[in-house]
Design a protein that fits this description.
This protein has 19 helices and no strands. The protein is mainly α. Helix 3 packs parallel to helix 14, helix 5 packs antiparallel against helix 14 and helix 9 packs antiparallel against helix 10. It is elongated and about 110 Å long.
Amino acid sequence: MDMKTMRTIEKASPLNKKSEGMMRIAIAFMFIAVVFVWTSLSHDGVANNTFLIIGAVFGAYMAMNIGANDVANNVGPAVGSGALTMFAAIIIAAIFEAGGALIAGGEVVKTIKKGIIDPGMINDPQVFIWAMTAALLSAAVWLNFATYVGAPVSTTHSIVGGVMGGGIAAAGFGIVAWGTMGKIAASWVISPVLGGVIAAGFLYFIKTQIVHKEDMLENAKKIVPILIGIMTVAFATYLMLKGIKKIVKIDFPTALALGSAIGVAIYFVVKPLIAKASEKLENTKVSVNSLFTIPLIFAAALLSFAHGANDVANAIGPLAAINDAIMSGGEFGGKVGIPIWVMGVGAVGIAIGLALYGPKLIRTVGSEITELDQMRAFSIAMAAAITVIIASQLGLPVSSTHIAVGGVFGVGFLREFLDNSETNFIRITRERFKSNKKELDKLEDEFNKLDNVEKKTKKEYQRILELIKLIEEKQEIVKEEKKEFKSAKKIKYVKRDAVKKIIAAWVITVPAAAFLSARSEERRVGKEGRSRW
């Protein structure tokens, strides 16, 4: 059964869609219910365990929304380019997201939960707990809405806005670490621009060194192993800095040196493999694209691991803070380890959210912004890895959404620039249309003159028949070129409507999450005040 037939069946069966939607909601509620029951039973004797149970439920809800919205950035380009099927992408991402969260997520959690506000300015532990609860709920609700409308937004933005809004409502503007917020705000601008520039740079290199050469395959044999080696250096360096930090601490120069050594080794391993694969291929762009398929699969897996390690903090950072406050009896300013169950809530929640609701945003990132092939998707993956390493060393909690989507924008706009898209295409089409229109007018004039002659010669009759045929052919040509000219005005490699929607969502994410969180905290304070009165 082909895709067209399946779509027809889906359209004809609205009940199937409705039942499928209800099944997804049921599975999501089952996960939340399991978290609720487990937290209740495992913390039965803990004072104020109600707050912890509520925080765990909201943390589970937040984790699922991260999986539904944010994971698309890691696998969307690979799916959009055809390197991975949707099913394979979801399986790979779910495994590696959960692995990254469980293995390497703890350190980032500590940064998020303490870096945005100063917990020491809140004297009442219950106020702090409610502020973190409000942050979780507001961020999750905003992400839920963004996923519903198909906008890939930053979960880092969402939780930072939530923590900031809850903190301000609890203790005023002085509680916010504005210096840290300034760095974060700068990273939100820098990361998409840097991601776009790096992605465009890699794509430009691939185009000039491979695609625009007469013998593409021969050049691909030399260049593709180098690119895979660079990718290995980037990912190996990042994973050593984050993935094994709990086992052994490695500084950046050491990680880069070891990553470079691994990259060189991989280069010599893949070089003969690429050469052998090239022997069976034709000298076409499609063939060259196929050489990037396997590297893209590895990139999607490694990006998912890194994302799980980095963005699990957005789901469980506030939950970890709530757990610290309750388990330490109110001394929530100190350093406390992250319990494995807290990490588990984030890891499993991300995987479930991805499986249930991830495909919508994967399609948005992979195909609805610009058309991607394997070379373009590879460039985006490279940009994501390198930008994350740079930001990590600068101490910026960057948004993987901004980096990946910035990379998609970058490759799309580069294509427009290289093809000099609209200007040249419309000019050529217009000139061709005008030329053919003039020829048609001349033929019609000649026909009219001959047709008005009362006594026609045999030669003139023959010419009239020729003109009728030529006019009909030219009319069809002019008609088609008129359509082409009209459509040419609309041709852009990057869909502007998608760009506007995404940027608008980025701009309002922090204030929206902060407002929701602050309002939630204010209502709680108001109700508590009325109750006491």
